[in-house]
Structures are given as structure tokens and as C-alpha cells.
Amino acid sequence: MLNSIIKKPGKLSAIALGSNIGDSYKILTAAIETLANTPGMKLEAQSSWYRTKAVGPPQPDYLNGCAIFRVQMSPDLLLETLLATEAKFGRVRQQRWGARSLDLDLLLYDDLIIDTPQLQIPHPRMVTRAFVLVPLVEIAPHWVEPTSGSMIKDIVKQVDCADVVLCQK
């Protein structure tokens, strides 16, 4: 009973993952493993993978998912860690919303709201993106998005999820 009262150390953070260049399944799986083995990060939950249409210029479909990590680092350091992980997997930023080997987005960090030029939490477009909400609702349906005060399971009902297809791999 005591264990249920004591809060685990760290903050919960939701991360969106996507890839549409190379062996996306292999890249995303390796990215999750890399992050889970990063000091100060512990994998708490991982969604299924979903095939989705790309946003932006013409390009291949994406493989998308989400993961929840318990982190013992600041949001800024977590963002740096995500960007370094993207680079490790060959991410080159050339075109906004262009194809990429790995895309990692910091969606939520506990119930924190941050709005700086470098970092916005919650992710400013997550509430309109089915490719983020569908995998996120699978692993965190009751997480309250702090700017709207709504649970993820309610937000996902407000977007068209027809193009988000569960992958069987």
C-alpha cells in the first residue's frame, strides 16, 4: 500500500515518433531503445505503430507512434536529447514538413505549459493531428492536455482519424 502512495521520481513526458525514409519500423524501434537507455529516461508505455498520410509536400506515408517516458531532466534538456537522437538516426532538416528518417516531438511534459521560441509544450499542433492523437490515446487516454483542460480520449474524437491505419508488424 505504501508503494501506491509514494510518487515515482521524475516527470511523465509524451513523445511522438515518426519516420518515412528508410526502414521506418527498424528506425523507430531503435529510437525507442536509444531513448529508453538514455540516463534520466525510463520507458513507461509505447503505442502500436500506425501508417499515416504525410503532411506537407508529396512524400511517402509515415509510420507513427507515441511513447510515454518518466524523465529526470528539464524540458529543455529533454528537447536537446530528442534532437540529438534524431541526428543520430540521420535526420537532416532541409524542408519544413519534408520527408525524414526520424521525427521526435515533445508533446506533453506532466501538466506543464511552456511557450518560448525554442520550446512549446503542449506541442502546438498535437490537438489537430490524428497521427499523434490516435497512438497517444492508446497509451494515455486520461492524460489532460493542460491548455484545453480536456483528456486525450475526448480530443481525439474531434479529429478525422480515417487515414490512421494500425500496422500489423
UniProtKB/TrEMBL annotation:
Residues 96-107 form the 7,8-dihydro-6-hydroxymethylpterin-pyrophosphokinase domain. Its EC number is 2.7.6.3. Keywords: ATP-binding, Folate biosynthesis, Kinase, Nucleotide-binding, Transferase. It catalyses: 6-hydroxymethyl-7,8-dihydropterin + ATP = (7,8-dihydropterin-6-yl)methyl diphosphate + AMP + H(+). GO terms for biological process: folic acid biosynthetic process; tetrahydrofolate biosynthetic process. The keyword Nucleotide-binding applies. Coiled coil: none annotated. The keyword Iron-sulfur does not apply. Pathway: Cofactor biosynthesis; tetrahydrofolate biosynthesis; 2-amino-4-hydroxy-6-hydroxymethyl-7,8-dihydropteridine diphosphate from 7,8-dihydroneopterin triphosphate: step 4/4. It comes from the Bacteria. One of its GO terms (molecular function) is ATP binding. PROSITE patterns: HPPK. This is 2-amino-4-hydroxy-6-hydroxymethyldihydropteridine diphosphokinase. It comes from Anabaenopsis elenkinii CCIBt3563. The lineage of its organism: Bacteria, Bacillati, Cyanobacteriota, Cyanophyceae, Nostocales. The gene is folK.
